[in-house]
Amino acid sequence: MTNLFLTLVAGGGDVNDPVNFTFFIGCMAMMAASAFFFLSLNQFDKKWRTSVLVSGLITFIAAVHYWYMRDASMAGDVSNVTAFRYVDWILTVPLMCVEFYLILKVAGATKSLLWKLIGLSVVMLVTGYFGETMGNAVMWGTISGVAYFVIVYEIWLGGAAKLAKEAGEEVASAHKILCWFVLVGWAIYPIGYMAGTEGWYDVLPTEGLAMDVWYNIADAINKIGFGLVIYSLAVKKTA
Ligand SMILES: *C/C=C(C)/C=C/C=C(C)/C=C/C1=C(C)CCCC1(C)C
């Protein structure tokens, strides 16, 4: 019975495959998180509602893409999975930059900070997509990695870090946690990339998990975790 249900909802392929299974679970988790964020909106002061709304949009956009990726993955259509994956990221990662901007706005964050972070994420993601689809994975991955490090630098030590110090204790500590997500949680993505593309890194043990499993775990941690940090900041600021 359970198996029948899973097979129906998951589209008829092998649900025991960890890639398909994590697409399925990821989709449900993103849907649940979106419902949670959207339904909580009314309890917050107007100023914080936008931030929590953006958290919900990030998980909702991911839920829709996971729905399609799960389908494509069950059908064995790997190149469609990759396309949906990067469309998802190119929408959700800039929204995560918007989250940084929104919480730092009280301390005077400018649009130029926002565009800098968005520009860097676009470079990071477009070069990553090239690396996955056009060969030369090591070269494209390196360029992508450089953009990633500049993002890490900007939020930990650059302009965003300075603003966080001036934004009050609660915002500063939420900013710090988000910084850890970017440093540690986002670092899972290049590991997945190395597991799924060819290069000097093929000798590493990280090859043992499929690329999509790494990406799915990372998405769950980063999209839902990020959202919860914003949510709890909004709770504190509203109380
Ligand atoms: C919700 C989706 C998120 C937070 C996606 C983040 C994606 C990355 C940080 C991807 C980074 C990559 C590198 C740093 C090098 C290899 C190519 C990428 C695109 C996987």
Can you tag this structure with a few keywords?
239 residues; Rhopdopsin 7-helix transmembrane proteins; 81% helix; binds retinal; 0% strand; mainly alpha
What does this entry look like structurally?
The chain is mostly helical and 239 residues long. The protein has one domain (2-238): Rhodopsin 7-helix transmembrane proteins (Rhopdopsin 7-helix transmembrane proteins), CATH 1.20.1070. It is built from ten helices and no strands. The model has no long low-confidence stretch (mean pLDDT 93). It binds retinal.
Q: Could you outline the blueprint of secondary structure elements for this entry?
A:
Layout: H1 2-10, H2 18-40, H3 46-74, H4 78-104, H5 111-133, H6 137-156, H7 159-166, H8 169-185, H9 188-196, H10 211-238
Helix pairs in contact: 2-3, 2-10, 3-4, 3-10, 4-5, 5-6, 6-8, 7-8, 8-10, 9-10
Bound molecules: retinal.
The site of retinal has 17 residues, from α4, α5, α6, α9 and α10.
Summarize the structure.
The protein has 239 residues and is mostly helical. It contains 10 helices and no strands.
What is the helix/strand order? HHHHHHHHHH
Number of domains: 1
- Assigned CATH superfamily: Rhodopsin 7-helix transmembrane proteins
Uncertain residue segments: none
Major sheet: size, sense and barrel closure? Answer: none
- Counting helices, strands and paired strands, the structural category is mainly alpha
The overall pLDDT, averaged over residues, is 93
* Reported CATH architecture: Up-down Bundle
Question: How large is the share of residues in beta strands?
Answer: under 5%
